[in-house]
Amino acid sequence: MAKRRNDILRKKIYIVIFRSDTALGKLFDVVLLWLIVLSILSVVLESVESFRNQHLLAIRIAEWFFTACFTMEYALRIYSVHRARRYIFSFYGLIDLLAFLPAYVSLFFAGTQYLVVVRALRLLRVFRILKLTRFLSESNILRTALKASMYKITVFLSSVLTLVTIIGTLMYVIEGGESGFTSIPVSIYWAIVTITTVGYGDISPQSPAGQLLASVLMIIGYGIIAVPTGIVSVEMAKATEGSKRQCKMCQSPIYDPNSRFCSNCGVALKLK
Amino acid sequence: MAKRRNDILRKKIYIVIFRSDTALGKLFDVVLLWLIVLSILSVVLESVESFRNQHLLAIRIAEWFFTACFTMEYALRIYSVHRARRYIFSFYGLIDLLAFLPAYVSLFFAGTQYLVVVRALRLLRVFRILKLTRFLSESNILRTALKASMYKITVFLSSVLTLVTIIGTLMYVIEGGESGFTSIPVSIYWAIVTITTVGYGDISPQSPAGQLLASVLMIIGYGIIAVPTGIVSVEMAKATEGSKRQCKMCQSPIYDPNSRFCSNCGVALKLK
Amino acid sequence: MAKRRNDILRKKIYIVIFRSDTALGKLFDVVLLWLIVLSILSVVLESVESFRNQHLLAIRIAEWFFTACFTMEYALRIYSVHRARRYIFSFYGLIDLLAFLPAYVSLFFAGTQYLVVVRALRLLRVFRILKLTRFLSESNILRTALKASMYKITVFLSSVLTLVTIIGTLMYVIEGGESGFTSIPVSIYWAIVTITTVGYGDISPQSPAGQLLASVLMIIGYGIIAVPTGIVSVEMAKATEGSKRQCKMCQSPIYDPNSRFCSNCGVALKLK
Amino acid sequence: MAKRRNDILRKKIYIVIFRSDTALGKLFDVVLLWLIVLSILSVVLESVESFRNQHLLAIRIAEWFFTACFTMEYALRIYSVHRARRYIFSFYGLIDLLAFLPAYVSLFFAGTQYLVVVRALRLLRVFRILKLTRFLSESNILRTALKASMYKITVFLSSVLTLVTIIGTLMYVIEGGESGFTSIPVSIYWAIVTITTVGYGDISPQSPAGQLLASVLMIIGYGIIAVPTGIVSVEMAKATEGSKRQCKMCQSPIYDPNSRFCSNCGVALKLK
């Protein structure tokens, strides 16, 4: 009998924590989201020296309050889920664990308390909460487009890395240590800073030959920054295309999501 | 009788001030536009020290002349409009108020006179003036494209903010205060400067580990700068497409250039 | 009789100088192009102090040799062209004049000799020389795309300028002169440097509020840098599409603008 | 008889070294790839002073081990290939030679040992190794798109270079040597740094006129950075389109590369 009641309780907790299609489940998710945002804010503010000196106690209390919340939530998740092991080793399970573990570790090892910022990854959960809204389908188009572009992006990135290695080494030979190009890794770092058009200017060529090579690298970078954009644009256009409806009579594509008749054969369409 | 004449006067003022389809209405709009541009110019020039020292009186006179103009215009707008309250709390009404209010406030609180620069927002009125020209339809395509991309952009921006928070914190842990990463908010600021490829260089990583992480962030930024471009390109292509034909029966847009029937009401279409 | 011979000479010169469809005309154009490139190179090298000190005489001689060439060429052009006045006030005529005038002016006013660099504009003539090759048609597609985008770009640029004025003023109020924001024009310059993602770092915000506002500006810039790209992409796709021909028999697209027979059904095509 | 055995041996070596369709051939390629990566790593690490001081002997041994491997590989390639001269002067043959030659040259001329980094170019071989996977076809789309855009990119780049030369000279005249614009080549370098939105900030305008011209250049750069992106996007869309299959019965395009039946008419398709 007690076991039965226990089972019902577990099921109830499961529905509140894991699902978001009941009023209580939604409330839980929204509260959780705010706790995550606030806990990240407390970590961020703790690192500001003037703020830390004034409100050290408040920060400490808030910090441990959030850690307690996440620990309790994790315990409830393990308690209520059917296959605990599977949850623990899932992507979300590991993130949930990392959300409070660093806080306990920091008791023994100083300086690790900032690692709790991985809690930010929990914010990705927001996409799960909004499952029924338009956000996820948009996110899906993005994901499909990115996945389909993966191969092209790999080819592109390896070409860029080869280019950056060669030009970085050339700059090391041309400029030498006086202008800040103290070693090849630093020169490669400079080449990446340049080709991505970030351009800090902490290291910059001083000799005419170095400035010429840098100019060539920039013009090349100017040209090839177009490549990933072209890749993603095309894939995104295809993904958008792929999510379109089709007329069941004449197979012509339905462009307007609100169409009620096929634009080619005039047959009535079912609304999605 | 006086009331009647009053009403006619109000109507006349209304047509001149609010509309731009009469010669006088157009003249009013063009003069207003020039007043806005000149008043912004006077505020901008006032801030240049050498100019202020030489022409202080001229600036002051111009400043109060513009403020008087805008105050009078505001009074006339309230006087002539049918539903004054609705106008006052509308978007354009608030901007019109903000165009002269800071000037009066600056009599009591020094340093607030620069806030009159919000007058620049009044320049947006130029799009209303050019209502009948090609500009607005172009602006409409832009707006439609941006609106349709809003959901995708929200997903994109929240992912970027999560990424920037995590990498900013990591850099704070890796680099510490000596290289300028004095707190997590500053490190997040650095991460935004880097991922958007702005790259001021006021803060830049000095340690090998920091430079490696920065390189990874730049390469990631290089890849994902393509995403908003892809989003807007696709939406803009759709919006351009969408502005093509319209059904003559139900006014719904015809997306497919080869449609032979309206997708909304099923009426037969003439081919372009 | 002498007049007759004169006329024939003028015609011959005209064909050599203005046309490029004879062997001599082509040779003239290529030699001219090399003279332009070399004369620009001599101006550029003159500005390098170490080079000027060593080769001053050689530079001076080269400089006056090029000026003499361009002067003579200009005289021949005026002599041989039918309607001299029309040529003189045409776009190319003015550029041809500006190619040697500054050299003579610099005899009286020191420091103006660098203005001969406007000769670089003469390089645009290269597109005219290559008239019969593929380059010009490509350049036409670019021009069509840019022209069609002009309206959208105007709306876009005026929005960007309004944004930059407002944020520049806000930064001037927030940061003040200590961080380099010495006046509103300088702050607007900073905002342009930031929103275009150039980011020199000669001026950068120091206060938390300033860094927050800068972050917002960067994220906005990140989003709206996509807009001109989207505009040009769409217009370019349309221009490419628009320049395609179709076979009238089998409807298959004709990709090569010079094909005289349909590559699918072999029917003879009319040249566009 | 000995010649016969010799021929068989040469053929076997050829298959292992030049092909990658046997198990041994694949193993050879993978080992070679790792040797290339490790040898580049050793060169890169040698340039780091602290590392060089500690592990000088190990680096030297590794360096010569890699050089011996590549020399032996080169000898085997010449020995086994049919037409040795053709291989030696081919693109890959020259890269293979450059992979070990600088190491020997550095025995006589100090400072040239870093040139062995051209070994990185050998990594391009990876695309040949993966010939049968999806990578190469992706790389082909990229190459087709880039090749088709070549003409447009040439027109674009020559316009950019003309612009940069003229604005660089103007800045030299306006700003002069005090702000770092010491010569026209340096000013052109600055203009390239600005128009590509890299923006080091090692040279930046100080006078109001210079800052105004720089702002104009940045806004122009902002607009025309869209052009290469538009070009590549359109070409990439066309290349993607061109690599699509078509049903032989109804001519409808086959979007999914794995489909075995036409989605329109249901006819069986041959797999590519």
UniProtKB/TrEMBL annotation, chains A, B, C, D:
The chain crosses the membrane at residues 27-45, 57-75, 87-105, 151-174, 180-200, 212-234. InterPro entries: Ion_trans_dom, VG_K_chnl, Volt_channel_dom_sf. GO terms for biological process: action potential. It is found in: Membrane. Coiled coil: none annotated. Keywords: Ion channel, Ion transport, Membrane, Potassium, Potassium channel, Potassium transport, Transmembrane, Transmembrane helix, Transport, Voltage-gated channel. It holds the Pfam family Ion_trans. The keyword Ion transport applies. Residues 26-241 form the Ion transport domain. GO terms for cellular component: voltage-gated potassium channel complex. GO terms for molecular function: voltage-gated potassium channel activity. It is a multi-pass membrane protein. This is Ion transporter.
